[in-house]
Amino acid sequence: MAWFYLIVAGLLEVVWAYAMKLSDGFSRPVPSAITIGAMIASFTLLALAMRSLPLGTAYTIWTGIGAVGAFALGVIALGEQASLARLLAAALILSGLVLMKLSSPG
């Protein structure tokens, strides 16, 4: 169950990062509320995952899902640049996440 919590927490990190961008510096109420709600849910699920997963593994996977997910969403939804260097960087982060998962107990 810890891995499920961790993956959902990482996906919620993408949600709150995107909603924060849409909040325009917390000046728009609905995206601001989504940001805060998704942050609370993400941190809660991360805390639950950390009950049985090592700190280094849980935090690395959580931030990695958030980083790669936010990058992908920025490219797809916001038209941000998808240069070869940025794609390679995202691929390296993703490969690190896979290696972290494969090398972790549980």
Order of helices and strands: HHHH
Portion in strands? under 5%
Instruction: Tell me the total number of β-strands.
Output: 0
Structural class of the helices, strands and pairings? mainly alpha
What would you call the shape? flat
Low-confidence stretches: none
Can you describe this structure?
The protein is mainly alpha-helical and 106 residues long. The protein has one domain (2-102). The chain contains four helices and no strands. The relative contact order is 0.16.
Defining key terms:
106 residues, mainly alpha, 4 helices, 80% helix
List the helices and strands and how they pair.
Layout: H1 2-22, H2 29-49, H3 55-78, H4 84-102
Short description:
This is Guanidinium exporter. With about 110 residues, the chain is an all-alpha fold.
